[in-house]
Design a protein that fits this description.
Helices cover about 35% and strands about 20% of the residues. It contains 18 helices and 22 strands. It has a 7-stranded mixed beta sheet, sandwiched between helices. A 6-stranded mixed beta sheet has the order 9-8-7-10-11-21, with helices on both faces. The longest helix is centred in the first third of the chain and has 17 residues. It is globular and about 75 Å long. The chain binds 1,4-dihydronicotinamide adenine dinucleotide and magnesium ion (MG).
Length: about 500
Amino acid sequence: MSPPNVQAQARAPGAHLADRPAILQHATQRLLIGDQWGPAASGKSFDSFNPATGEVIARLAEGDASDIDRAVQAARLAFNGEWSQWKPYDRQRLLLRIHDLIDKNFEELALLETLDMGAPVQRTLGLRRYISQLIMFYAGQTINVAGATLPNSLPGNITTLSLKAPVGVVGGIIPWNGPLISQWWILGPVLATGCTAVMKPAEDASLSVLRIAELLREAGMPAGVVNVVTGQGGVAGAALAEHPDVDRIAFTGSTETGRKIIRASASNIKRLQLELGGKSPDILFADADLDVAVPGAAMAAFNNTGQICYAGTRLFVQRSVQEQVLERLTTFSRTLRVGNGIDPKVQLGPIVSAKQLDNVMRYIDIGSKEGATLASGGKRLQGGDFGEGFFVEPTVFGNVSNDMTIAQEEIFGPVISVIPFDDAEHALSLANDIDYGLGGAVWTRSLSTAMKVSHGIKAGTIWVNCYGQIDPGVGFGGYRMSGYGWKGGPQHVDAFLYQKAVYLNLD
Ligand code: NAI
Ligand code: MG
């Protein structure tokens, strides 16, 4: 194996990266297939940008169907090889070694993610404990690959039991809004269960996936257990989704791409896990503690510059406190520090790409045209410290009605829509008048209101007087057009297994 030289220098958070971490020069234009780091078969590559500056920071190998095919073959070989003989505690020890290596290299990984997709170091460095827990959770699951003995009413002396076995080769297709975490929702259960994987990271943020693949090998993961093919979604991603020797696809991304993946799965009846778009309702009652609820609701929408699948982008506010909440919300949003996330004081980084920025600006324009009131923000930030980065002000729309485009479509930017309601029934009817069902929240001092709304919102994950917390042992999931397949919790690991019933005639 000849891993590229990717030792980035660890730096104090916020240090300006005048000289670039070496991974930006060397880890690029390389795919990991089996034990080989090498270029795409076609020799093609494409630019990768730092969204805070608009600069090209790396070139990535542009894998295509032939690279995907080589990677799937490597994953199949590994699935059938020595890896299949590893005992649960062997896999657990591997995961614990990976955990320690990731923790040791965490500052570099966090900086890499900041440079690659723009999230501030305040956020990426802050993920250390969370990612540690995520990996520890899956390390603990290796011994839960277990069936059961089951009663039966068959004649004769037949014992019935179930066995669990890993499903095989998993295709992991992930988005750009937080690959440092989101790859673990695939790598964790793959390594815990004895599956193998081909990862296709997003074209706008592949670097942390490449670096972690190196650390997996360094920790002693056998060759081929995890392979990485960078490339375009419509080419490399589509080839992975179509491939007849892939058993399961774990996908996070847009609903539109999710549909294509469902169609592609028909080739060999693949198992699927789909976490798709969202337009999550956040319901704020007049009896809520506004000092907590307003900043909480604002960050539910603005965190990660709004680029979170379960962002609480539709803020339903009880009419009696509507004016007060809107005023507090705009005041709060003006205090948020937007900028290059390499500065530790920055709270909101750029939008990931020029294309996504255009998309967000287009929605802001539509919001005004359809008659919503732009209460604050709404402009692209450019020049001066913002340079040519893809920055946009945190944006608050008041006077929004639930049928407006900005209240129905996923914007994936720092835009919140305030929509008034009268009582819980009214709030729920508005909240559920949407195609998505990923998350939702309620802010209230009344336990009865909290439970009524928790029962009433049609979504996979509900928060009460908080937003966005996810524990790996509990997990989260979607409903309706937000997709299916729970992430986290014991059932997540189970989804990477298949079950066999054994009928044992003892006569
Ligand atoms: P996307 O769904 O196209 O991309 C997600 C991943 O799928 C990427 O790795 C991409 O390369 C891959 N992909 C694209 N086309 C594919 C295909 N035909 N077959 C297999 N894989 C394919 O999302 P995109 O274009 O980056 O963002 C568009 C919108 O999607 C955003 O504005 C946002 O609304 C939504 N989105 C939602 C996310 C979530 O976490 N729910 C994450 C990213 C985007
Ligand atoms: Mg990038």
